[in-house]
Amino acid sequence: MADRGALEAAAAAGVIGAEQVGPLHDFLASQAAGVSPAPSGEEDLRFIRNFHDVFLAIGILLLAIGLAIAVTVYVSTSDQPDAPSTVILSGALFAGCGAIMWLLGEIFARRRRLFLPAIAIVCSLTVFMVSAAALLYAGAIVGRGYAGPAWDLGHMPQELRVGILVALAFAFIAPFAFYLRFRLPFSLGLTGGGLALFIIVAALIANFELATNLLPALFLALGLLLFSAGVAFDARDPTRTTRLSDNGFWLHFAAAPLILNGTFGLIGMAFGTSAGLASVVGRDGSPDAALQAALTLAVVIFLGFISLLINRRVLIVSTLITTGAAIGILMNAAGLGAGALAASTLIVLGAFVLILGASWHSARRALLGWVKPEGPLARIFPPETPAAA
Question: Do residues 60 and 121 touch, judged by C-beta distance below 8 A?
Answer without folding.
Answer: yes
